[in-house]
Amino acid sequence: MKETEPDFWVLEYVTITKDPRTDLVVAIGGTEKAADILQRTGGFLSAPGPRGDYHRLPHGLPVEQQRRKATAASHALLAAGHSVHLDPTLNMLVAPDGELEAALRYLAGLAERASAAKTSSAVAEVLTEVAASVHGLLPLTREVIVRAWTAASDLQGSTPGERPDPIARLGGTASSLSEAARVILRARNHAARTTQPPATTPPPGRAQSPVSRRR
Q: What would the pLDDT profile of 27-48 be if each residue is shown by its tens digit?
């Protein structure tokens, strides 16, 4: 009996995620039934895309509203029998403490890797995690500081030249983090190029002479 490939309901699959370029929450995939659920339960809007229609939440929604609507829509889709991938950053049911614990475990793991490093390349790998240009710890921390600096200035209604000293210093802190990342990357590059020292040879006094070896 010849076996045939099963029919997969690929079109039933829906991905709900946040586009990093526009910060819009978009839903891709699904059928007309899924589109109806997205519109009714999540407030998604239909929009034309280069590969067909997709759905997105309206512009300008606060982050918490984005998460609430995306979570509600994903659970409604699951209840209706659709397969759904919901971006973890949009899932309201994920406990914030879990994310904090994961971050602390990651930092503790980096410290342990640095302590246990036996080669320069292992040290370079740890320093890369700290200062990598896009996803390094220092550049990401700098981004947080810059956004907090901007928000604090806007909330106080101050212009760049009139910012209170504690707020103004945040800008200098962001610059210091950038410089620190550059210093660490230079050290990382040096460590990555460093060759490991050759194996040590026994002291000259203990080496056998050719004559003694012949005996």
A: 998 888 999 999 999 999 998 8
Q: Which position has the token pair 């991905």? A: 15
The tokens for 43 are 């407030």
Contact 19, 52 (CB under 8 A): no
Can you give the pLDDT at residue 184? 94
Q: Are 70 and 38 in contact, with CB atoms under 8 Å apart? A: no
Number of C-beta neighbours around residue 193 at 10 A: 10
Amino acid identity of 120?
Answer: S
Question: Which of 56, 24, 62 has the alpha carbon at shortest distance from 42?
Answer: 56
Give the H or E element holding residue 29.
Answer: strand 25-29
Tokens representing 181? 């990342």
C-alpha torsion sign, points 85, 86, 88, 91 = negative
CA distance 99 to 102: 5
What predicted TM-score, i.e. pTM, was given to this entire model?
0.49
Q: How far is CA 192 from CA 16, 126, 129, 164, in A?
A: 39, 11, 13, 43
User: CA 59 to CA 83: how far, in whole Å?
Assistant: 26
Distance CA 201, CA 77 (A): 69
Q: Would you give the DSSP letter of residue 61?
A: -
Q: Which residues of the chain have pLDDT under 70?
A: 1-2, 6-11, 94-99, 157-164, 194-215
Give tens-digit pLDDT for 141-157. 999 999 888 888 888 76
